[in-house]
Amino acid sequence: MTRIPAVDPASATGKAGDLLQAVKKKLGVVPNLFRVAAHAPAALEGLLGLSGSLAGGTLSPRTREAVALAVAETNACDYCLSAHTYLGRAAGLSGTDVEAARRGEATDPRLAATLAFAGRLVETRGRVTAADVVAARAAGLDDAALVEVVGHVALNIFTNYLNHVADTEIDFPVVRTGTAAAA
After folding, report:
1. For the chain, how many structural domains are there in total?
2. Which end of the chain has fewer CB atoms < 10 Å from its terminal CB, N or C?
3. In Å, how far are 26, 54, 179 from 50, measured between CA atoms?
């Protein structure tokens, strides 16, 4: 049973209604995450704004989805893991890529370094070491990429935590955390 119910887009009014209609226009559907966030239109607007801005950054859709998968697995967010498994596959990640990303791994050295840096951000609550930054840079991440990874981790922590608090009903094919296949 959800703790914060999803807002019905058909009955939402004002700013929340406008934002949910924009989501529907863009995606064709309104996932429950956005419907829950609509209780606080400022939070929904911030979520959509940061997500949209970061989507226009330098990280590829595959990289963004891999980061989301790693963060969701670490934070045990079944909703986000389910959503980003679906979205990751749509962005071109194979089933093997999805499983690896959940473990914070990748065969591509740059993606592996990105996931390692993202993992360290979550693990240390942002207090990465100089060695973490040096390792990321050695793999080809420039300052812009480092900042964008921080942004994606923060965005995904927000959605993970919101889904934990709300106990959001999963409206994607369900994937449970803690079930990633070993390498």
Report:
1. 2
2. N
3. 16, 6, 29
SS3 content of the chain, % helix, strand, coil (to 5): 65, 0, 35
**Which tokens sit at 101?**
């990303």
- Check if the beta carbon of residue 72 is closer than 8 Å to that of residue 50: no
Q: What is the CA radius of gyration of the chain?
A: 16
Per-block mean pLDDT, blocks of 10 residues, the chain (183 long): 95 98 97 99 99 98 99 98 98 98 97 98 98 98 98 99 99 92 66
On whether residue 84 sits in a domain, the answer given is yes
pTM score, whole prediction: 0.95
In whole angstroms, give the CA distance from residue 50 to residue 55: 8
Q: Which amino acid is at 139?
A: A
- What residues make up the domain containing 26? 14-55
> Which tokens in the block code for residue 173?
């094919």
